[in-house]
Amino acid sequence: METPQLIKVDQVSDGWIKKYVLTYRLPNGREFAYEAVSRKKYDAYLEELRNMASDAPHMQAPDAVCIVPRTRSNELVLVREFRYPLNSWCIAFPAGLVEPGESLESAVERELSEETGYALARDEQGCAHVNPLSQPGFSSAGMSEETVQVVYVHVEDELACEPHTEPTECIEVFKIAVPDVPHFLETNTTPIGTRAQLILEAFSRNVQRYGA
């Protein structure tokens, strides 16, 4: 199928989240305006859109990380966070934005400490095993170009420090033993983020199939 062609990009609002109107020419020749949002400023956003349309797009550093922490005792560390756009608490894995120039491991370690107080488990050589998925995924491709890198890590059983969140962040940390994940999914009534839901479902099916 022929690819729609981007004709122009107009920024229509500013702020932490910026709104853009993207005008495309469809394969039938009709022009079509599509609303999108981004944290990026105009020039960076336009560059990203052009990069994505190239024959060999360069995979940029992810905008954010989603951390799946598993303790040495086989427990998953999650958060229950009040999400203002939902006006509700929401269950998720620890996550946050990657700072400019920050390595993936540094972002994981910082966000993990800030939101949960847990530290990466290290082997006898002092190495942490940070296992990202093969590529970042898009948070909400129908609305934004934001990418999130899901990373699986092992953490120590006990807190390394107290969480140090932003004053406006309302976050509670809790753990689920991996064998208890199926029961948790069956009985949970708190809204849950899609990534957490999919990851927990994968653990649940593994437990049901292999018992671990």
From TrEMBL:
GO terms for molecular function: ADP-ribose diphosphatase activity. PROSITE patterns: NUDIX, NUDIX_BOX. The keyword Manganese does not apply. SUPFAM superfamilies: Nudix. It comes from the Bacteria. Residues 59-200 form the Nudix hydrolase domain. GO terms for biological process: nucleoside phosphate metabolic process; ribose phosphate metabolic process. Keywords: Hydrolase. Pfam families: NUDIX (PF00293). Belongs to the Nudix hydrolase family. PANTHER family: ADP-SUGAR PYROPHOSPHATASE (PTHR11839:SF1), UDP/ADP-SUGAR PYROPHOSPHATASE (PTHR11839). This is ADP-ribose pyrophosphatase. The lineage of its organism: Bacteria, Bacillati, Actinomycetota, Coriobacteriia, Eggerthellales.
